[in-house]
């Protein structure tokens, strides 16, 4: 226990430093605003040099002001006292005093690495590490770790009982929080791993894989901004619920240039949230689907014209279905993209018609070119071509799979009879239910197979048009700014990312790896996941192959995280017992925090399930400060959501066991765990995920059958 006088004295000393930092911050902000204003004034001078100078000035000043505002809260969070007496404060931003003395070191700078990496075993020259918490401009709490007692001067105070545990016991908000002040050594090593190649981070539930992946994105943007902000960083997560949950982390670190997507929203124009049962997802996600889709893209359009009949100069010209099919086949050699070789198909039809007209000795038959021009001018002929070989959108072709005869034809010899029946059932209500997450990867594959339909040209962005539609004859800087803005608003189908982060990678199917791979051909990667949490029930060898293909031959750096920061030890023990049924020898993380509160297990009659779930959720809302998640088997989600209505407002969320992936709540009510476990494919692994979502309280409610 630290004595209160020492604590007050230490807090007061940090407060003095914080006061200097915020005074300097205010000064920097004022000068940024001034620079922006002066920049605009410079423009009046009118010569080219002045304009360029103004541009640079205005742009940097505005950006600086934005950063200073974004990093205001919790600006300084750490302090290192080193052997040589040097003191370094670590924060969200690097700040220097007027005499260039360092007031704060940016957490991503090499000098700050010791804050995360020093341990008592390897103090790296650090005697005392201090974590500082503040609200607004006031220091609220400090926590010290004495890393090298032998080197500590006799008057060095050590206060608090550990920043990490203090942070972990705080309630969870609706979104994930940044962990910048308490990143642990093994996490820091993964965060700072080289920018090139593939960084693979594995570890059990709650070990901070997601937190590491996001902080790594922020680190990369800091270490090589032009590369990563220019090319862009893509972060892919499993579901839209999850993406919403993590969306605030990067902005809280002052980074808003990364693009976040769920697996269901990677294909432009569609956002799928519905999931297939695991056995269907296994078929739709299999690489064999590529061959099924390839066959589909070569087929005739359903309900398209079966033949062509054309009256030409009194003579009937005819092309039968077989001839039309043969023309299409010739125009579409293997590997060609149907939308891109339409012209070859049209030429084939024209050539066949001309040959026929000659055979039939049509009177006054002109040269072939003139004949073709004549036909092309005819509306009925153009209508035929459009109907016979339309520009196809992937959505059209995927729809063909909903026709049982077509599906059998495309999948015959590739999928088994049972698999075909599964897919057929799944697509039975495609028009009503819409796409599932697994379908989105199929759309993307079809897009690659079909080629881009020619899109209507977008009006070009006018670099002189400023926000609010004001057109100003402007300068290089305005254009620069417009260009940067354009980089931020990348086209929807942008595919040249400089870095791709894949979270919950254990659930990415082979077809989804292909989809993500297309967006990272030139990228370096961060891939995080936990195989023990996968819901994938398809071929594991195929999965490895698809993943290897997406990641290419880049060098791989492996990291394993071993501490569970999320669950109380009591809650994780229940989850661990579950996964041990399947993998008795699996190394599991250690949960660092104990609450002394055991999870509650309820078994009730089926008719009492709804009242029990409502009561359990209400109890948890009263017991925890933060969020409550009600996790259900997939088929029960809507029913349970209806029971709970608006209970808890934004503090309560109902999610399926699949949507729960990556999520975190202070309290969890798990509905019908037995039903989740009963799935023969991935039941236990999915239950393991569901049981490891809670930080404080867990109640399971099982109906007896
Ligand atoms: N160093 C840390 N300091 C404070 N909190 C941390 C730290 N590392 C992780 N956490 C917290 O632990 C929780 C779990 O982290 P995260 O969601 O990143 O784990 P995960 O490994 O992705 O879990 P899962 O595999 O179960 O999805 C989060 O609340 C995160 O903020």
**What is the CA-based Rg, rounded?**
31 Å
| Strand arrangement across the biggest beta sheet | 3-4-2-1-5-6
- Unreliable segments of 5+ consecutive residues: 459-480
Rounded mean pLDDT is 89
Oligomer: single chain
Count of the domains: 5
The tally of strands reads 21
Shape: globular
Helix content: 40-55%
Class from helix and strand fractions: alpha/beta
Major pleated sheet: 6 strands, mixed
| Associated small molecules | adenosine-5'-triphosphate
Domain UvrD-like helicase ATP-binding: 182-568
Protein name: DNA helicase IV
GO biological process, one term: recombinational repair
Binding site for ATP: 203-210
Helix and strand arrangement:
Elements: H1 4-42, H2 48-70, E1 76-82, E2 87-91, E3 95-96, E4 102-106, H3 113-117, E5 126-135, E6 138-146, H4 163-168, H5 185-191, E7 198-203, H6 209-223, H7 225-231, E8 233-237, H8 240-246, H9 249-252, E9 259-262, H10 278-284, H11 288-297, E10 308-312, E11 315-319, H12 321-331, H13 342-359, H14 368-376, H15 379-388, H16 394-400, H17 404-411, H18 417-427, H19 430-433, H20 437-450, H21 476-488, E12 499-502, H22 510-518, E13 524-529, H23 540-551, E14 556-561, E15 563-568, H24 569-582, E16 590-593, E17 600-605, H25 609-623, E18 628-632, H26 637-644, E19 652-656, E20 665-671, H27 673-677, H28 683-691, E21 694-704
Parallel strand pairs: 2-4, 7-13, 7-14, 8-9, 8-12, 12-13, 15-16, 17-21, 18-19, 18-20, 20-21
Antiparallel strand pairs: 1-2, 1-5, 3-4, 5-6, 10-11
The chain binds adenosine-5'-triphosphate (ATP).
């Amino acid at each position: 226990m630290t004595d209160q006088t020492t604590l007050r004295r230490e807090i007061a000393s940090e407060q003095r430093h914080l006061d200097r930092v915020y005074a300097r911050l205010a000064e920097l902000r004022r000068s940024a605003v001034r620079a922006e204003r002066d920049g605009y004034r410079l423009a009046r001078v009118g010569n080219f040099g002045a304009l360029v100078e103004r541009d640079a000035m205005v742009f940097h000043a505005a950006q600086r002001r934005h950063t200073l505002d974004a990093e205001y809260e919790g600006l300084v969070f750490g302090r290192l006292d080193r052997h040589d007496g040097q003191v370094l404060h670590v924060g969200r931003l690097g700040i220097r005093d007027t005499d260039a003395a360092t007031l704060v070191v940016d957490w991503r700078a090499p000098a700050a690495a010791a804050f995360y990496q020093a341990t008592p075993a390897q103090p790296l020259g650090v005697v005392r590490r201090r974590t500082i918490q503040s609200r607004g401009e006031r220091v609220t709490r400090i926590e010290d770790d004495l890393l090298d007692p032998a080197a500590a001067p006799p008057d060095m105070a050590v206060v608090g009982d550990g920043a990490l545990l203090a942070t972990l016991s705080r309630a969870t908000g609706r979104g994930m929080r940044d962990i910048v002040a308490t990143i642990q050594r093994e996490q820091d090593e993964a965060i700072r791993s080289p920018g090139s190649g593939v960084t693979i981070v594995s570890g059990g539930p709650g070990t901070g894989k997601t937190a590491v992946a996001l902080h790594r994105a922020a680190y990369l943007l800091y270490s090589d901004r032009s590369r990563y902000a220019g090319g862009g960083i893509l972060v892919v997560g499993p579901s839209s619920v999850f993406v919403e949950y993590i969306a605030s982390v990067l902005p809280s670190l002052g980074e808003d240039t990364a693009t976040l997507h769920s697996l269901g929203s990677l294909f432009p124009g569609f956002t799928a949230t519905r999931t297939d049962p695991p056995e269907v997802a296994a078929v739709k996600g299999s690489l064999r689907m590529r061959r099924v889709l390839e066959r589909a893209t070569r087929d005739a359009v359903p309900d398209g014209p079966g033949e062509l009949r054309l009256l030409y100069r009194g003579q009937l010209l005819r092309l039968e279905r077989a001839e039309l099919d043969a023309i299409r086949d010739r125009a579409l050699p293997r590997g060609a993209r149907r939308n891109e070789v339409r012209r070859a198909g049209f030429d084939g039809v024209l050539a066949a018609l001309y040959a026929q007209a000659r055979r039939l000795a049509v009177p006054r038959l002109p040269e072939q070119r003139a004949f073709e021009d004549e036909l092309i001018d005819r509306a009925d002929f153009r209508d035929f071509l459009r109907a016979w070989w339309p520009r196809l959108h992937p959505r059209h072709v995927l729809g063909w799979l909903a026709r049982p005869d077509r599906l059998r034809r495309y999948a015959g010899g590739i999928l088994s009879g049972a698999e075909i029946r599964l897919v057929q059932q799944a697509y039975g209500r495609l028009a009503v239910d819409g796409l599932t997450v697994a379908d989105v990867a199929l759309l993307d594959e079809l897009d690659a197979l079909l080629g881009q339909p020619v899109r209507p040209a977008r009006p070009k962005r006018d670099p002189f048009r400023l926000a609010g539609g004001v057109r100003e004859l402007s300068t290089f800087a305005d254009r620069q700014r417009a260009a940067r803005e354009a980089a931020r608003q990348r086209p929807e189908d942008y595919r040249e990312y400089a870095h791709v982060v894949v979270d919950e990678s254990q659930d990415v199917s082979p077809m989804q790896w292909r989809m993500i791979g297309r967006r990272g051909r030139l990228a370096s990667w961060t891939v995080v996941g936990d195989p023990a949490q996968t819901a994938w029930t398809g071929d594991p060898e195929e999965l490895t192959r698809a993943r290897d293909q997406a990641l290419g031959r880049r060098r791989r750096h492996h990291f394993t995280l071993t501490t569970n920061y999320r669950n109380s030890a009591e809650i994780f023990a229940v989850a661990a017992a579950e996964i041990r049924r399947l993998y008795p020898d699996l190394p599991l993380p250690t949960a660092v925090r104990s609450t002394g509160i055991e999870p509650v297990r309820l078994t009730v009659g089926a008719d009492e399930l709804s009242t029990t779930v409502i009561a359990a959720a209400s109890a948890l809302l009263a017991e925890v400060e933060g969020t409550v998640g009600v996790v259900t088997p997939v088929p029960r989600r809507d029913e349970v959501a209806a029971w709970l209505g608006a209970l808890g407002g934004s503090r309560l969320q109902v999610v399926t066991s699949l949507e729960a992936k990556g999520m975190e709540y202070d309290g969890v009510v798990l509905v019908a765990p037995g039903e989740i476990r009963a799935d023969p494919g991935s039941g236990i692994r999915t239950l393991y995920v569901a049981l490891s979502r809670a930080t404080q309280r867990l109640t399971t409610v099982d109906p007896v059958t």
